[in-house]
Each structure stands twice: as structure tokens, then as C-alpha cells.
Amino acid sequence: MSIDRRSFIAGTAAVAAQFGFASRVYAEDKIVRFTIAQDFTRIYTFVTSEYNQGQRDYFALVNERGGVGGYKIVADVTDHANDLPRAIEAYERGKREGAVLIDPLSTPVARALVPRALEDKINMITAYSGRSDAADGTAFPYVLPLSINYWTQAGLIIENFKKTEKGSLKGKKIVFVHIDTPFGKEPLSILQVLAQKEGFELLTFPYTPPGNDQSAIWPQVRRARPDFVIFWGAGVGQTVALTEAIRNGLPMDRVSSSVWLSESDMDVVGRDAAKGVMKVEPCVGGREPKIIKDILAEVVGKGKGAGPEAKVGTAYYNYGVQMGALMVEGVRLAAAKAPNGPVTGPWLNDGLRSITNFTAEGLLPPTTVTREDHQGGGMGRISRWDGAKFVPVTDWFSANQDVVWGEIKKNSETFKTTGK
Amino acid sequence: MFYRRAGIRHTRYQDERQLFPLAFDRGLILTVLAVLLAAPILFDRLWLTGYLLPWLIWTSAALGLNLLMGWAGQIHLGYGAVMGIGAYTGVHLVRFGVPLEIAMIAGGIMSAGIGTVFGAAALRMKGIYLAMATLAMQFIVDFVISHNAAISGGTLATLQVPSVRFLGVPLTSDWATYYFALFVCFVITLFMLNVKRTSFGRALAALREKDYAAQILGVSTFRYKLMAFWVSSFIGGVVGTVLAVAYLRAVSPDQFHLELSIQILAMIIVGGLGSVLGPFFGTALILFAPIVLNNMLGSVAATFGLDLPIDMRAHLPLLAYGLLVIGFLLYEPLGLAKLYANFRNYMLVWPFRHAQR
User: Fold this and answer.
1) pLDDT digits (tens, 9 = 90+) for B213-235
2) How far apart are CA B110 and CA B89, in angstroms?
3) Which of A169, B17, B91, B211 is most exposed by smallest CB count within 10 Å?
4) What CA–CA distance (Å, rounded) separates B214 from B147?
């Protein structure tokens, strides 16, 4: 059978018209629009795809159940490749289309977007990225980390080490191996303060980005005979760091990382070899939490999942669900306060900043976001890799928040006075 | 047809000496300028701040690099660092309360000074070796900036740009920043258009073709190589400040990495080495092809209900973009400007096929 040009065009037009009609029906629903512009191609790659998959699966779950507070969630997903012109374009386009929230998942992009988001009153989610001092809601009303920032993570790790050493780190040697970028150096200030306070010796070993080769650093780490090791990076640097730590025979049960460690990293390193390594967990991993089970039944089970089923329940996937759940909780609270909108940045901001004791049915530690505290309370836990999954070694806890908030205030005050 | 070149001969020296001897070219330039001037009224905010503003700023930067690579033939892989030096100098001065006009120039001078020191390597080496030397500059500058809390701005390594004024106009609204960038781009373009007609420009061209031949002809390679680095780094520094003030509004070391250098290099290669028009085309292609392809794919997928995995959607435009660049290098290595020149040359004598010599 051959198709002539006329019937091809007519057919295409008919199909297009149908879809046009379908989307118009959809447009009659009350919607809340999110701009999900993240880096899928340049640096974070698989980290982003898993995080993003979790987010979209959660939004699908919410929409399947008829939305929240009468609103459906529309998430426009694009790739900004960690490139500022592309990210700013995506931001501006989202703003034009009425997006009230953007989640760039990139430290450089978030830092460049801060002035715009504050000025345009668009909620920017900077989970595990951006400026740590954005936890101060009085200085950054529209920048919302909604998660434990890197300073808190460092504080939690040190606190756990202290517990391992039965309450005192005096005279111990802690090595901090980090990627030599602003993101990698961020925890340094906290660690230095804690070193003074707790009396341990802090040694730092920076490696050059992107961290493909760290073979020069780790023998030095070994020679320093540390009591504990913290390694800090994201993406490729993490797997290389872990591989080198194993090769140099460092005891894995005294090595810890930030939130950036997942099952996918372990597949690269070798699941058995990495047994014992610790990380900070901001939410429950695995498929046990009720939300993940619901997603498996109601979204993935119906063939509507955003990605491969095997990734459901991995660490980064659950971070994505965590953030999706917090955003949607914000929408729910905003809709409860002002059911008829109008859907604007300040409208959603009101909701996001009044999240109280939210646990997403057991996925998160109790999270409370207020107008002052955008970090959500600063609770996390440490978990240990047992060769197949991360097993929590502590309960949800919060530590060294006085030091962390001291640093937050110091930086946000500078922003307040010189930034405007 | 449009250009009406056939049969027109200049009868006065000043006619021939004009920047654009053809009436049509002048009309075209004026039309484009008029559209650019009216852009804040004609286009909406997304177009203004999402496309036109970065286009103007990156084009200005590419023009500066083109002076060095296209005209003087000196390879430079550290232009992003040059812009970074300018941006940091400018922003620090602005934060100290120095007026933007002076901060811009100071940023330019600082970049020119440091850029020339590294450019002095060009006196001893050429080609791939010079590329390595300038690459070293990129990494050294990156390192110095990110390791000096005094430069990069403390633990968070971000410097906010305070609100500034340019010639009395506060650069807060979209149109003000846009006109500011347009003004800078206009001045740089005008300068570049005139450079090739000066003895400086001709000396650079001689250098590019063969530096020792140029030396024999009486062009001081020492002087002109340094001058080329000085001028181009100065432009880079000024544009760095403009980039920080008008576009980024917060500078951090991540913004001036090797990627920026490569991006600008790609712009002038795709656009056309040694032309003024080239960077305008090249910038548009390099900056916007990924965005446009991405959006197109997204809307096609949305309209036809295709369930493209997001990873695929993110990578397909990259593939297409790579093919586009390879295609250009294969079929038109002189870049987009040459494509336009071909069209123009054809139209100059249309309906005849060949111009009389």
C-alpha cells in the first residue's frame, strides 16, 4: 500500500487535532506547573535519571489518584546539561508557562538562579545542591533545600563517628577526601569548627575534578593512618574514591560519604568489595516504604512508570520520591489555605513553608519546614552497605545543629547585607 | 537581485572606503539594528532574556577570541579563564562601590595584563604547543580563583552582583540589561569591522599567514603578537564583567571552566574564523541548537503521545547537534559566515552566474 502526500497530511492533521483536543480537556483541570530542568547529559547523568524517575513516578501516582487539593501536577522535564544559558532559558520558559517551582538539581545552576528566583518569587528546590545557607528562610524566602544540607550531613557523620568511639573523638585522626570544587569544599568550615570542638585532627585531601583519577591521593590517605575517612563528591568521583579506598585497604566500616552513594555506585565498585561503607540517608531506601509500594502497584504495575522497574527503590530514586512528596505536600497545604489560588509562586511558597511533621507515610524523618528553617529540621540517619542494600545503623537523629546554624547565619547575613 | 552590484562602479574614494559600500548591505544592517533596538517591545521576556541577551554577550566574547584566532592565528584554549578574570575583577570592584563603567574597563585591563603574560608564550611557540600553554592558563586561573576565598567569596564561593548603574541607568530591568549588552556588542562589532582596515589588522593577517615572513616584511612579531593577546584579552575581560553583571548576576568558579573556553572556540569555528559576521551565526547555533532541538523533540513527543524515555530525549538532540557540527566541518569548513558569503556572492551578480573580473 502506498500513501500519497494528501492522505498523509490529512491523517497527520487528524491525529494532531485529536491530541490537541485531548490536551485541551486536560488544560481545563486545575493544574500546578513545575519546571523540572536537570542535567541528564553532562555530569550527573545516572544520578539525575534515577532521581528524576522517582519524582515523575510520584507525580504520576498523585495524578492517578485525582490530584491533590483539586490540582493536578504538571512537570515539564528538560535537560539543562549543567549549562547556564540553557538552564536560564529553561527557567524563563517555565516562568512564562506559569511554572511556580523549579528543581534544577545542580549546584552551579542553583547558585546562578538564586537572584532570579528571589526576584521573580518562583520556588526553587535546591535539594542536595545549591547554597547551604539557603536553609535560612529569612534571607532566601524562595530558595528551599527541603533537605539536610551538606553542613548538616558532615555534622551527622562526625556525630556517628563519635558514637563509634564511645563518645569522644579526642586525639583521633579524621581524613576528608573531597573533590576540589566549591561543592567539595563546602563542609570544610563545619569540619574545622568540629575538629576544634571535639579535639580531633582533620586532614584534607582534595582531588581535581571530575575525579576520574585519584590514585595519587589514596596512598597518602593510607599512610596518614586515619581513624576515620570521609569522602565527598558526586557522580563519577564517588565510585573512583570508593574503589581506591578499597584498594588501599582502608577499613570500610570507618569510611563514610554524604548522601551521594547508591546501589548504582556499588554496581561499579563491586557489591561485595564495598561491604561496610557508610553514608548519610535523608530518607528510607528500598521498596519497603508504603509510598514506594503504592507506586509499584498503581504506577509501575500499570505500565506507566517513568523508567526501568529495576531502579524503583534505589537510593536516588527514593530521594526523587522524597522531593516529589515534599513538593506535593506544599501544594496540598497551599490549596488548603487558598483553594482557588491563584496558583502563583507566593501561593505555593506559603504551602511549602508550612510543612509540619510530614513523613510521607514513613519515607522521611519527620520534616518541618518553617519560614525560618528551610532545611526541614535537619534529621537524617547513617546507614551501612551490607553487600546488597543499605541498612540503617542509627535512628533518625539531628546533630551539631548549633555549629551548622552558626555557619548558616554567618553566610546568610553576608548575603543579606552585601547581596542586595 | 537585491544587491544590484553589476554595473555599479564607485567614482569617489569615500564611497569605496565605506564599511558597507553596497546600499543593500547598509539597509540590511540598519534593519537588523532597528529590530534589535525595538526588541524589548517586539518580543516577550523569554525571547529577550532567554535568547537575545545571551546571544549578544556570547557573540561579544566570540568576537574577542576571533581577533586572536581568526585574525592573528594564535590558538587560545583559555579564553574562559580570561573572561573569568574580567568577571571577578569587575564584580569585586562593583562590590567596593566603583562605578560599573570603570569596573568594566578595569576588568578588561586586568584580563589583558594576565592574558598577555600567558600570551607571551606565543613568542616562543606555535600551534599545538601554544594551545597547551593557554590550556595551562585555564587551569591555573581556575585553581587560583577557587583556592582563594578572597577572590571566590568564602566557603560558598559565590559572589552576588549588587545592583549597578550604567551611564546613570540602573541595570535592574530586563530591557536595561539588554540595551547594555547590545551597546557593548555594538561597540565591539564596530571595532572589529574596522580592525581589518587598519595597519594593525593587516599586520595580524600577515602574522597569521606566516610569522617569520611577516617579520621579514618589517612587521614586529614580538609587538603584534603581544598586542593581539592584549586586545583580545581586554575584550574578553570587559565581556566577562558584562556577563556577570547583566546575565549571571552571581559569579562562581564553575562558570568559567574549560567548557566555556571550548564553547566559545566552537562558536568561532562553526561561525567562521576571521569574519565579523561568523561569531553572530556561530553563537546562535552553538547556544541554541541544543535548546531548540530539545524543545522540538519534547513538543513532538507530547503532541503525538510518544513515550520517549527522558534519557533518550536528552541525548537525541546532542546526537543531532554533533552531526550538525560535523556536517559543517565537512561541507563548509569556513563556517556559517561563508555560507552567507556564498549566497551574497551569487546574488551580487544575479542573474549571471559569474562576476566579471
Assistant:
1) 999 999 999 999 999 999 999 99
2) 7
3) B17
4) 42
Mapped onto helix, strand or coil, the DSSP state of residue A374 is: coil
Instruction: Quote the mean pLDDT of chain A.
Output: 87
pTM above 0.90, yes or no: no
Strand partners, A206: A178
Contact between chains at A112 and B302 (C-beta distance less than 8 A): no
Q: Do A133 and B158 touch (CB under 8 A)?
A: no
CB contact under 8 A, B310 and A89: no
pLDDT tens digits, one per residue of A77-112: 888 888 888 899 999 999 988 999 999 998 888 888
Q: Quote ipTM for the complex.
A: 0.86
* Chain B, nearest residue to A179 by Cα: B146
Beta bridge partners of A116: none
Q: Nearest-CA distance from B295 to chain A in Å?
A: 8
Contact B241, B104 (CB under 8 A): yes
Any chain B CB within 8 A of the CB of A78? yes
Cell triple for A295: 507506586
Residues of B in contact with A78 (CB under 8 A): 294-295, 298
Is A24 at the interface with chain B, CB within 8 A? no
Q: Give dist(CA B78, CA B58) in Å, integer.
A: 15
Q: pLDDT at position A324, please?
A: 94
Nearest chain B residue to A80 by CA: give it. B291
DSSP bridge partners of A174: A202, A228
Cell of A180: 576540589
